Amino acid sequence: MEYFLQQLINGITLGAVYALIAIGYTMVYGIIGMINFAHGEVYMIGAFIAVIGFAVLGLLGVTWVPLALIIVLAAAMILTGLYGWTVERIAYRPLRGSFRLAPLISAIGMSIFLQNYVQIAQGAKIKPLQPMIRGGVELMQGQTFSVTLSYMQMMIIALTVVLMAGFSWLIAATPLGRAQRACEQDRTMAGLLGVNVDRTISLTFVLGAVLAAVAGVMVSLYYGVVDFYIGFLAGLKAFTAAVLGGIGSLPGAMLGGLLIGLIEAFWSAYFSIEYKDVAAFSILVIVLIFRPTGLLGRPEIEKV
Fold first, then answer.
1. Beta-carbon count within 10 A of 85 CB
2. Where are the domains of the chain?
3. In this structure, what DSSP letter does residue 149 have?
4. Straight-line distance from the first to the last Cα atom of the chain, in angstroms, rounded to the nearest whole number
5. Residue 260 CA from chain centroid, whole number
6. Nearest of 258, 280, 285 to residue 268 by alpha carbon
7. Each residue of 199-208: pLDDT tens digit?
């Protein structure tokens, strides 16, 4: 029982990270109907900004961890927001009226470019980060195993819940959220009614990149290592989470992220760890066979 609870905590923590990244995919798809395959690399850039930021603050003598974390989070969110805006301007906006495969190919090209850009700028070696948040709370003591919730896991889960609630409120009750929902239904009509479609789409990319930046900072602190390739696999799994929950659905992205994290954690704990990715993708295939729109997705209605 203790081992099961520990893996449950680990799975929820990992799922929270996937959910943060998956929201970026689902927001972009909900508005323009395209998948931003460069989103995983934006997450990777956020992780590198965290490593560089903590190193610079250490050299400057900023040793108080809460202050350092706030500064690094702010810097990562601002810089990755600029990357998200740039991806939209370069890879999507010029091709928005083209055939559907053009922006997809452009986004894949941007993904490859960002990978190689970071590899050249930072090198191909793994970048370590010293543990900054240690300790935790012992929840249960068994005969051979104790269940521990680390402070880092608490922070990841709490930050994810706050951001999820904040973004749900933003989409439901703010002018930007109303503009996003209008563009999701009909971009042409939204533009005719006074919605700045270009600005709304750009801000959506920026918001998705900001969430990816938070996930990147948390992962760099949680695992203590980053490299230029982490965005590919994490982005692929977050995309899987978005599809599993229902691409275009914000609650679906959250649910899908948690499910993928739990599947990986429990499979790694009780079966062969080499096949944890196979298990996650197999669950996705099974769900889509019986529910093609995902768990919380809605059928797409063709407008004529």
1. 15
2. 2-230
3. E
4. 55
5. 13
6. 280
7. 999 999 999 9
